[in-house]
Recover the amino acids of this structure.
């Protein structure tokens, strides 16, 4: 780590809360981009937005074990700190990178009292028990530590964005800024989990996205949208031999099941090569 600190002179790497507090103290206008590493162009778009709107930008890299409901998923999650730091340094848009150890985040050992309302136990919350409780807990802790004026999060995980925004903006003087999903040339949403896919997987993901675009386009002509989506879900399963957790149209303001295309998004979670992918459009 000493090697890393010497390479990255302008972009300050913060390894503990003491150095973080000292470094951030002079700056009130802080933009925060929380990540679990696997830095890609989607993360860089969040950083660019923060750089435009805030005096200083801080990026965290912390793989939070409490938001993984599957130990194998946690173990296989892509990690390459050295590569991530090189990408962030090259962007020339990041002032601070926070690389906390577990004990720095969870110094307060009080058990989290965060629980989801029944109406929020939908989509990924229905299939990943305890996941969003872990997300909300760590985001609460990170926000308390960093005290940012703005937090930048992508729309790819729309449910996460929705829940974090709803909780943090009530509790802290911070604004959660939604940033559009960044896609590759084949319109596959960028994700750290994509590093676990091979080329043929990514080709299939592009075909699935094209099919989803067609489904979304045809929804407006359907009287019974849930039945239509159930049929399309079966078609996707049979055609691409994939497991699908959900394929649902929901209102973007409250995430309730929607019966109209207006103010709605099509949400999907599926497995490709045992890698769980999510998207919405």
């Amino acid at each position: 780590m000493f090697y890393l600190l010497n390479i990255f002179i302008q972009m300050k790497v913060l390894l503990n809360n003491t150095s973080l507090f000292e470094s951030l103290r002079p700056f009130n206008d802080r933009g925060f981009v929380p990540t679990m590493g696997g830095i890609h162009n989607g993360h860089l778009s969040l950083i660019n937005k923060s750089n435009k709107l805030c005096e200083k930008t801080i990026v965290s890299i912390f793989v939070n074990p409490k938001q993984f409901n599957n130990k194998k998923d946690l173990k296989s999650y892509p990690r390459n700190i050295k590569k991530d730091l090189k990408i962030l340094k090259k962007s020339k848009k990041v002032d601070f990178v926070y690389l906390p150890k577990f004990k720095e985040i969870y110094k307060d050992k009080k058990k989290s009292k965060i629980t989801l309302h029944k109406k929020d136990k939908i989509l990924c919350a229905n299939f990943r028990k305890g996941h969003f409780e872990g997300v909300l807990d760590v985001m609460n802790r990170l926000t308390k530590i960093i005290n940012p004026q703005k937090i930048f999060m992508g729309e790819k995980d729309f449910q996460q964005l929705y829940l974090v925004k709803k909780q943090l903006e009530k509790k802290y003087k911070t604004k959660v800024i939604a940033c559009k999903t960044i896609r590759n040339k084949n319109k596959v949403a960028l994700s750290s989990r994509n590093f676990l896919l091979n080329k043929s997987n990514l080709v299939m993901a592009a075909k699935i996205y094209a099919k989803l675009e067609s489904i979304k386009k045809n929804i407006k002509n359907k009287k019974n949208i849930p039945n239509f989506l159930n049929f399309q879900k079966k078609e996707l399963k049979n055609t691409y031999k994939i497991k699908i957790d959900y394929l649902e149209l929901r209102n973007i303001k409250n995430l309730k099941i929607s019966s109209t295309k207006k103010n709605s998004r099509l949400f999907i979670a599926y497995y490709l090569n045992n890698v769980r992918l999510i998207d919405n459009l």
